[in-house]
Design a protein that fits this description.
Elements (H helix, E strand, L loop, with lengths): L3 E9 L3 E6 L2 E6 L13 E10 L4 E6 L2 H11 L6 H8 L4 H9 L3 H4 L7 H11 L28 H12 L4 H12 L5 H14 L1
Parallel strand pairs: 3-5
Antiparallel strand pairs: 1-2, 1-4, 2-3, 4-5
Amino acid sequence: MIECLKGKVINIEPETVVIEVQGVGYLIYAGNPYKYEEWLNETVIVYTYQHVREDAIRLYGFRHREERRLFEKLLQVSGIGPKGALAIVASEQPGLVVEAIENEDEKFLIKFPGVGKKTARQIILDLKGKVEEFVPSLTQSVPGEARTSRTSSYSQELEEAIEALRALGYIEKEIKKVIPTLQKESLSTDQYIKLALKEMLQR
């Protein structure tokens, strides 16, 4: 499985984006491809999920690893396919989705395309108690408000450094403590990582 792609956004379509990595263009299915317009012709990191069927192999892409984890959990629910799972994750409210599952809020879930009462109940039955631990940072969304990208105000280098720290196993609480220090600097991704690790060791 391809964990992630780091490359340049070279094309955007209604359902897909194309990420060029070392001369190879990868077609990525995204919940809201037009979110990538601000990164057109710039380098991004996209976390991917490879879905294989008899008639097709597709890559689904997410800006954050937690969103992909939620997507994977939704695929385990009977009646939810990649298209439906992607629509839920791309709703700008993934944290509220987790809260709805934990609170057994069927009314919130049935507003998504293709999710009726029966499917909403199945989502709750299958996933309650199983998603919060996989996507802890998503549950920090403010109720009633759409979640925005938590790193949207960061530079590309700082965002990549934060994703790298997550990949190294650091939890959100640890990362948030050093972000104010990192934001004071204008560094490369590697320099941000080194500074963050230094700060964490001193705490």
